[in-house]
Amino acid sequence: MTRKRLPTEAAPTLKTLEDVDATLARIGELTRELEAIAADTEETIACARETAKIRAEMPATEKALLERALQDYGGAHRAEFAKVRTKELAHGSIGFRLSSKVVIRRIGDTLTALKDYGLKACIRITEAPDKEAMRNLDAATLASVGASLKTEDTFWYELKREDVEGTK
After folding, report:
1. How do residues 120-162 score in pLDDT, each as one tens digit?
2. 74 within 8 A of 89, measured Cβ to Cβ
3. Is residue 81 part of a domain?
4. What is the distance between the alpha carbons of residues 140 and 146, in angstroms, rounded to a whole number?
5. Helix, strand, or coil here: 93?
6. How many domains does the chain have?
7. 139: closest CA among 130, 150, 131?
8. pTM for the complete prediction?
9. Would you call 95 helix, strand, or coil by DSSP?
10. 43-99 pLDDT per residue, tens
């Protein structure tokens, strides 16, 4: 359940369980209203995305074709780029650049080989405390590793949505 941060202004005073029940009903109504607003917003965003996608389709296709034409030109005139790798033009530049990347066929085999050759610096290891497992440790052990278990008695509420939806 998500925590709700309550406003700092004065809240109405509830004196009876009937007041509390009426408050839960009102919270249910407000929740429905907020969900409707969020749904409307999501629908508006989805429509805007779809419109943008349709509008961008033709320019994106043309741009991809023009980029392919530049690439084809570069491939056909590769000899011109042997000495001067980049050609500066009025509206930009084109050229060839050397790039390299490591290609790994099988990750497991490569990891084993790196370990066998003592190349542990080439292995990425991510470490992070497991808070779920740490909950089972006693307080002394937690304190010895620089942690503690914080226990709070927090107030909560739960709406009976089907009852609240029927009251409108």
Report:
1. 899 998 889 999 999 999 999 989 999 998 988 887 778 888 7
2. no
3. yes
4. 10
5. strand
6. 1
7. 150
8. 0.55
9. strand
10. 999 999 999 999 999 999 999 999 999 999 999 999 999 899 999 999 999 999 988
- Domain extent for 61: 17-99
In a domain, 109, yes or no: no
Q: Which amino acid is at 76?
A: A
Question: Does the residue 32 lie in any domain?
Answer: yes
Of 50, 72, 51, 69, whose CA–CA distance to 61 is shortest?
Answer: 69
Task: Identify whether 74 is part of a domain.
Answer: yes
Pick from 23, 21, 27: nearest CA to 4: 27
- Residue linked to tokens 């005139």: 77
Per residue in 11-53, pLDDT tens?
A: 889 999 999 999 999 999 999 999 999 999 999 999 999 999 9
